[in-house]
Amino acid sequence: MPFAVYVLGLAVFAQGTSEFMLSGLVSGIAADLGVSLSAAGLLTSAFAVGMVVGAPLMALAGRTWPRRRALLFFLAVFIAVHVVGALTPSYGVLLATRFVGALANAGFWAVALSTAVALVPDRLKGRATAVVVGGVTVACVVGVPAGAVLGEHWGWRSAFWAVALVSLPAVVAVLRSLPGGRSTEKGSAPVPVRDELRVLTGPRLRPVLLTMALVQGATFCAFSYLEPLLTRETGLGAGWVPVALALFGAGAFAGVTVAGRVTDAHPVAVVATGMTALVVGWAALALAAGRPVLALALIPLLGMLAFGTGTALITRVLGLAPGAPTLAGAFSTTAFNLGATVGPWAGGLTLDAGFGYRGPVWVSALLMALALLTAGARWLLRRARGSARGRRTGGRARGRTEVEAGS
Predict the structure, then answer these.
(1) How far apart, in Å, are the Cα atoms of 78 and each of 82, 98, 164?
(2) Which residue, 117, 143, 118, 130, is CA-closest to 14?
């Protein structure tokens, strides 16, 4: 595996820390800025909205840039908005910095995914994807719990300062490790945008992207409100929150690692098994939320299933879209974060409606059931089309045989 792929994973680690760390900081932000828990949860949704909008726009804007220049620009913007977020006393400004930071993160993700798979042969594309996505899971293991500890002892702003500082080594690593060439091969013209869009909006990819959005919606819905679930429903002290987040991240890292090694050979089996298990797993967490030991045991398992399935789906999209080298990573990022937008919003609705802190977890189970139905419907439709083609081919073959026999 080229070292540059691991550099991309390092940079994604810094950005993933920012994307996920609010799950351990929502109570502190809400209290400091005088807003509700659901409003603090919307900071996660604002980040996800920026990712949804920014992934295709930033990928298109940077499609003719050298990869290194594009990645460095996105990292510089990301660092700057975290400095502003750490200083602002305004919820509105903080919300805006989350959105702008997400635009930069989305651009980085889109270029990083396309760069990683371009640097390796076909047999290693799943592993390369897993290394990049693995940066997010390492963020869950190390960065997010560390952010929660910083927030508990020195306030939530210290976590924002830490993200800005951790991002600086990524700038140096990208500058020294990635080539400065353009995103297309020397002497070749970029694929027309219209042709890329035709591939990505075709009938093969639409259901996969929708399934990815639903899976990530389920993940972010429960994860965004994990801290109040554990402290107010499970009965654990605030000191257990970083432990639970680290357990989730450790499971996520294991899931990404396994998926990266298995998905290239068995993509459908990994996705189907993971989604089925997640329906059961989120429902089990909702039922077991009042039992600390059982809840803590389920959290790493759910992290493993959620991120393993998500990695397999990203690899599936990139594998089905070789004709969209610029926008395949962007559309994967958009689908990933569309779920991250809807999930916390839907979970916040259940809290505002008075359904308790288990409400978001039940929504996660429902979203996973919808994802499973979507994938199942796609499989049945493809099978029906295959059978219809087989009958037509068989009918024509029989007709030719009869004519030949008659003559």
Answers:
(1) 7, 9, 8
(2) 143
288: left (phi over 0), alpha (psi -120 to 50) or beta: alpha
- 3-class secondary structure, 156: helix
Q: What would the pLDDT profile of 26-65 be if each residue is shown by its tens digit?
A: 888 888 888 888 788 788 778 877 877 777 888 777 667 7
Q: What is the chain's mean pLDDT, rounded?
A: 81
What whole-number distance in Å separates Cα of residue 271 and Cα of residue 309? 5
CA distance 372 to 374: 5
Q: Are the beta carbons of 127 and 261 closer than 8 angstroms?
A: yes
- Average pLDDT on 175-187 reads 58
DSSP annotation of 23 reads G
**Three-class SS state of 121:** coil
DSSP letter at 239 equals T
Closest by CA to 251, choosing from 319, 299, 196, is: 299
**DSSP assigned state of 189:** P
Cα separation, 375 vs 381, whole angstroms: 10
From 20-29, 177-186, 226-235, 294-303, the region with the lowest mean pLDDT: 177-186
